[in-house]
Write a structure and sequence with these properties.
This protein is about 35% helix and about 20% strand. By secondary structure, the chain is α+β, with helices and mostly antiparallel strands. This is FERM domain-containing protein 5.
Amino acid sequence: MLSRFMSGSIRNLEREYNCTVRLLDDSEYTCTIQRDAKGQYLFDLICHHLNLLEKDYFGIRYVDPDKQRHWLGFTKCIAKQMKSQPPFTMCLRVKFYPPDPAALKEEITRYLVFLQIKRDLYHGRLLCKTSDAAMLAAYILQAEVGDYDPGKHPEGYSSKFQFFPKHSEKLERRISDIHKTELIGQTPEESELNFLQKAQELETYGVDPHPCKDVSGNPAFLAFTPFGFTVLQGNRRVHFLNWDEVTKLKFEAKTFHIYANQKEDKKIILTYFAPTPEACKHLWKCGVENQAFYKLDKSSQVRTVSSSNLFFKGSRFRYSGRVAKEVMEQSAKIKREPPEIHRAGLVPSRSCPSITHGPRLTSVPRQRRRAVHISIMEGLESLRDSAHSTPVRSVSHGDSFMPRHRHHTTDAGEGGSSQRVISDEAYCPSDSVLPTPTAEHSLELAVARHPNGAPCSIEEEESEAGTPEGQVAEFGPDGGVLRLGRTRKSLPNNEVQELHKFILSVLRMFLVTMGLLFALLSLLIMLTESDLDIAFLRDIRKTPEFQQFHFEYFCPLRRWVACKFRWMGGFLIDK
């Protein structure tokens, strides 16, 4: 009896596993779900925990053991998507940035978007000029510490908070001056709304950067925003295509293609190269989802997209979910008492404060160890002096897809004037370049040192997936972390994988060609040798061209083949 009870308990444990999701305020939500549960079930649990109704803008992100980021598919089984073993660790992030954050219906949604953009600012994804950076940081101070109070805020108080990857004393003084004089009396809700409106006007709003290289080998960052596709190099935006201009997204191995139609029916193709085939596929899927979400009017218009050519087997993907216009229409129907938001004070040297939503029965508290020293120039080589890009003309934001208050920020002209300076610094977001530690014990190594003695911090912005033990970091010549290596098991050779894919593609093309030749030969035999009296065949046989082919080419070829077969038969009989 006891053995049956124990075996039943073990089977139940095998059918369940724990899943931890890190929220936008750095807290954790842990739950137990069935092994066959789909992503939508976990997402609904989190939204219920946060009391969130406008949930279509958010998604769950995780990182596989090869350090490749993914968005959790809601229509697929969670266990089948993860390449590691449970328990699983993921994080909640904004997946589709609202084109106009001020138009969001509920304050809880605006607050979560506010937390996400604060993370973008802290980790170098939302890059801006010094004047804009000071205003954004002052809004954060006003929203979370309130009005300036000399008794509570001594001289240099803003230096205790880490708003950006790096900043100067001059910028800190400017932040304090704005907070002291220009924002007095603003409530947290007003400051957060002003912060969102200011951030939405920036060129890098909504950017989730994907590191790539252009055809000349120059580093670049590709991103999909609420307004279109953008390419960033150095401190410039070198290309922009709005969603109405983008006609097709395609990838082959590491190569990513963007097809677009610009004004006067001018067709262009932008080509970039991702670090790995997996990164290129993730880039393609993100592009397909963003294009469907922002461009289409109804979710019924969504179609399955393929990356393949005629003779090559490619990936097929279909966006599942509502589009932006449907989300706005659904949000307008929300009628409930606004949920209470318990804002906590800003914690020094932290990118996000803590937020509580009443008692957390399933939330696991955790002390995060965050590195203070983060250099914006770590990782990839500096892009500051890079002015090269794919030699194709880009365009600027058009009036057709911009909110009314963004019209004054459109580019001044066409062609070369579209290369706009977006910041005083080169665009080099830390979490897009640095590896992501995911095991708890690896967080203790958050602040390490390079061989030359310079401080090095391992970015933990999105530590979403478990990492096997025995990993070592590999540093580049400038001290930046290039990748994580494994001591137990080496990563698969990408070159060998590409060679295998190429061989399979050639074999597939050969088989298709042979099949076509066999079909043509079968049709030819039916025309010449069979006695089938079919109208289709009879009409072909009566044409002068076929009769000439039959008597001048086919009959001599048939006699030659028959002669060869007779010779081979006689040769084999003599033997």
